[in-house]
Specification:
Number of strands: 22
Helix content: 25-40%
Structural class: alpha/beta
Number of helices: 14
CATH topology of the largest domain: FAD/NAD(P)-binding domain
CATH class of the largest domain: Alpha Beta
Radius of gyration: 23 Å
Largest sheet: 7 strands, mixed
CATH superfamily of the largest domain: FAD/NAD(P)-binding domain
CATH architecture of the largest domain: 3-Layer(bba) Sandwich
Distance between the termini: 72 Å
Length: 460
């Protein structure tokens, strides 16, 4: 017999899971949340988004002391890297935030279980010695690092992002396989700290899926910073030894390095859930198919986040979780996938929301584009952020409704929020252009790009 019963059991305490549990509790449901890790917060807080951003910030500060402060009249002599202390700071940030998640769940009276959850045939869930029943079960177990055929991730020196945020020494040579978000962010970290970084990408471009014009501009910038790229590079094998790692490629020379970072994406984490016992079969990509209300094929079982189709983004997972539990509790919930932004936290940052030019051209949509460079923005000049970057606003040629915005530049991840709101509420480029933006701010570049849609920017 089940030992405990709830209105909602959330499996997974990552961004989708703990946020869903909190919102469901706010709506009056009796909620439990289970995670196999002692520290809550999922991959994002423990070994993903948060620790990588901490290291990106620290490594950028280190690089500034190595030569970018002199022009500001700041003379730094004898600056050196204390990697152990840098890692300790990163770990401290993670500990604070994972502890914060535990506190939030407690505050909202969410029962927390620690252990591996697995469905039983009667749709109850086993968690160690506990058997839990719930009217509704939400699967939010996230994702794990993917690999390539024939590449064994258990080899020494062959790493995923989990290991790459915790190196105890700076690799002299680092090969990154995959020129997506994870590869570029962590490649940037170790390049700043002294590694010779080579990025291998199977496609003929970096940042697959992002606006092509933006990706090309980013590629040029990263090359200037010292990242080496070999595009159109098909990796056929990775072999590790006590001396280093060799990477075999189709039709190209074998490369060697001290370490290899496998950054070819992530895959849904559904292993061990016992989905077969309740009749759920993941699709060919390992994803759990759901309907518009996040229902699986089994009554009362829902899924959100990285385990379902769509972009694997923490904020997308959060919004899906909130929409799902609001539908469960009230019958109503809302999520507009066109307003979900994507951000790459390199320097400069890269951010997009809405449709890309590639999308619009493919679908034959008549549009106008407005562009504005950060080089012409006063704040960017003042804070030494004008060397690269631009804002591009895409609007419907007839209605002027904003269809997409793409930014590369300092604080792009923050600037994109205004643009997401504009798309959500059906704003036109003129609406953005007529909104007063404080001076001097980087946000003025967004306004100027909106003005440029109509061919009337002020500062270029």
């Amino acid at each position: 017999m089940p030992s405990t019963s709830f209105d909602l059991l959330v499996i997974g305490a990552g961004p989708a899971g703990y946020v869903s549990a909190i919102r469901a509790a706010q709506l009056g449901l009796k909620v439990a949340c289970v995670d196999k890790e002692p520290a809550l917060g999922g991959t994002c807080l423990r070994v993903g988004c948060i620790p990588s951003k901490a290291l990106l910030h620290s490594s950028e500060l280190f690089e500034q002391t190595q030569g970018h402060l002199a022009s500001h009249g700041i003379d730094v002599k004898g600056a050196s890297l204390d990697l152990k202390k840098m890692m300790a700071r990163k770990d401290g940030v993670v500990k604070t935030l994972t502890g914060g998640v535990a506190g939030l769940l407690k505050k909202n009276k969410v029962k927390v279980f620690h252990g591996t959850a697995s469905f039983n045939a009667d749709r109850t869930v086993s968690i160690g010695d506990d058997t839990v029943s719930a009217t509704n079960v939400l699967i939010a177990t996230g994702s794990v690092a993917a690999s390539l055929p024939g590449v064994d991730l258990s080899q020494d020196r062959v790493d995923t992002s989990t290991q790459a945020i915790a190196y105890t020494e700076v690799p002299e040579k680092l090969i990154v396989i995959g020129a997506g978000v994870i590869g570029l962010e962590l490649g940037s970290v170790w390049r700043r700290l002294g590694s010779e970084v080579t990025v291998l990408e199977y496609l003929d471009r970096i940042l697959p899926g992002m606006d092509t014009e933006l990706a090309k501009e980013a590629h040029k910038t990263f090359k200037k910073q010292g990242l080496k790229f070999e595009l159109g590079s098909k990796v056929t094998g990775v072999k590790s030894s006590s001396k280093g790692v060799s990477v075999e490629r189709e039709g190209a020379d074998t490369l060697t390095a001290d370490r290899v970072l496998m950054a070819v994406g992530r895959k849904p984490n559904t292993q061990g859930l016992g989905l077969d016992k309740i009749g759920i079969s993941p699709n060919a990509r390992g994803q759990i198919e759901v309907d518009a209300r996040f229902k699986t094929t089994v009554d009362g079982v829902y899924a959100v986040g990285d385990v379902v189709p769509g972009p694997m983004l923490a904020h997308k997972a959060e919004e899906e979780g909130i929409a799902c539990v609001e539908m469960i509790a009230t019958g109503h919930g809302h999520l507009d996938y066109q307003t979900i932004p994507s951000v790459v936290y390199t320097h400069p940052e890269i951010a997009s929301v809405g449709r890309s030019e590639d999308d619009l051209k493919r679908d034959g949509v008549d549009y106008k584009a407005g562009r504005f460079p950060f080089a012409a923005n006063g704040r960017a000049r003042a804070i030494d952020a004008a060397d690269s970057g631009s804002v591009k606003v895409l609007a419907d040629a007839k209605t002027d409704r904003v269809l997409g915005v793409h930014i590369i530049g300092h604080m792009a991840g923050d600037l994109i929020a205004e643009c997401g709101a504009a798309i959500a509420y059906g704003a036109s480029s003129e609406d953005i252009a007529r909104t007063c933006h404080a001076h001097p701010t980087l946000s003025e570049a967004v306004k100027e790009a909106a003005l440029a849609v109509d061919g009337r920017p002020i500062h270029i």
